[in-house]
Design a protein that fits this description.
Elements lengths: L1 H16 L2 H4 L3 E7 L2 E2 L3 E4 L4 E3 L1 H13 L1 E7 L5 H6 L5 E2 L7 H4 L2 E3 L4 E10 L16 E5 L5 H7 L4 E5 L2 H9 L5 E5 H8 L7 E3 L8 E4 L2 E3 L3 H16 L2 H8 L14
Parallel strand pairs: 1-5, 1-6, 9-10, 9-11
Antiparallel strand pairs: 2-3, 3-4, 7-14, 8-11, 8-12, 8-13
Helix pairs in contact: 3-9, 3-10
Length: about 260
């Protein structure tokens, strides 16, 4: 009896000094990612799973911190509401940081930065540089993205059509339902390389209106998780892990993050 009591007491004592990270090593965290944002996040038909840059990044961070990301496919426009209602605990997608978003959610330190690209049909060879060059055009923009507000504010467009996915926008551009589309430059570049999206091109003369940082996103009251993610991001930047992931997906790892807009 004394031996049993001693062993039980020892077990309790050891449990009290085991680091929390070790206890949570197999913890599963719900992560929201979009199925339509190649190369950042997209549905791989071969595996029926979400893959991409942001999946690789959250996988690496999870391995470092000690959790397993469970990737949930969610439309871009529903990511923040899913986070706020606790359907997910982290957003890992091509969500740029804006002052408006920063008021309601918290962004991690930047993982990368990029701006929007302008796509037109191949028969349109005009060298657009800004919205003022597109007076009277009908343009497509993905619903919920940061590109909607400046396009509306410009007053340049006859109509702004909003879409749930970049693929649907590009199909409408092919079918001449819109004159041009604005979407994340890396997504546009990767998508247009697919044969099914032929007959369109990125306008290289166009200058992005918005260049923003991309990081992970958590709820405003989730400071402990945010601190943990930031510590891991710094570690993985310092040891070259993030650079390797960006290079794997054809992104420039040396692009400079911009000043914090919030």
């Amino acid at each position: 009896m004394k031996l049993t009591t001693t062993i039980a007491s020892l077990a309790i004592g050891l449990a009290s000094i085991i680091p929390l990270s070790a206890v949570a090593a197999d913890q599963t965290i719900n992560v929201g990612s979009t199925p339509t944002g190649m190369p950042f996040t997209y549905l791989d038909p071969a595996t029926n799973t979400i893959q991409g840059i942001m999946v690789d990044l959250i996988d690496a961070i999870g391995k470092d911190v000690g959790f397993t990301p469970k990737i949930n496919a969610i439309t871009f426009a529903s990511l923040i509401s899913s986070l706020q209602t606790k359907r997910i605990d982290i957003i890992s997608a091509a969500m740029v940081k804006t002052p408006e978003r920063a008021k309601i959610v918290s962004f991690s330190d930047p993982l990368l930065a990029y701006g929007e690209g302008l796509v037109v049909r191949d028969e349109d060879q005009k060298q657009y540089t800004a919205f003022k060059d597109m007076q009277g055009m009908t343009i497509g923009i993905q619903l919920g993205t940061a590109y909607v507000a400046p396009a509306e504010k410009s007053g340049a467009f006859k109509e702004i059509k909003q879409y749930d996915s970049s693929a649907n926008m590009l199909k409408d551009l092919q079918n001449k339902r819109v004159d041009a589309v604005l979407l994340d430059y890396p997504i546009a570049k990767k998508t247009l390389a697919q044969p099914s999206f032929s007959g369109m091109h990125l306008v290289e003369s166009y200058k992005p209106v918005i260049v923003r940082n991309v990081g992970l996103v958590v709820r405003k009251d989730d400071q402990k998780r945010l601190d943990t993610l930031n510590q891991s991001i710094k570690k993985l930047q310092d040891n070259g892990t993030i650079r390797k992931i960006l290079e794997k997906w054809g992104l420039d790892p040396d692009i400079k993050v911009v000043a914090d807009p919030s």
